[in-house]
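quick one before i forget lol
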Amino acid sequence: QVQLVESGGGLVQPGGSLRLSCAASGFTFNLNTMKWVRQAPGKGLEWVSTISNFGVSTLYTDSVKGRFTTSRDNAKNTLYLQMNNLKPEDTAVYYCSTQAWGRDYRGQGTQVTVSS
């Protein structure tokens, strides 16, 4: 079955950096577009970024453009999100997500807290 396991979250000061990882299994990773989404406390899910199956194309929500970079290693079935210049408003649970067999899948998430 599809499994997505995020890691790399933590507590960081404003201006700091974190690199999130998402280990994928149960589907053909290099055929799938992958996404990062996040959920801030008390808010709904927010799309963060999308990367095409071979990583040629990437898209970002405006609030993270120039600060976040999404990438993937298809040989390792792993998705990444490099987050630089973090701001308190980036505090959220971050999830990787994909579609397979007609439905959406999401991992358990990793908490990112940006605070001084």
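fyi The two ends are 40 Å apart (CA to CA).
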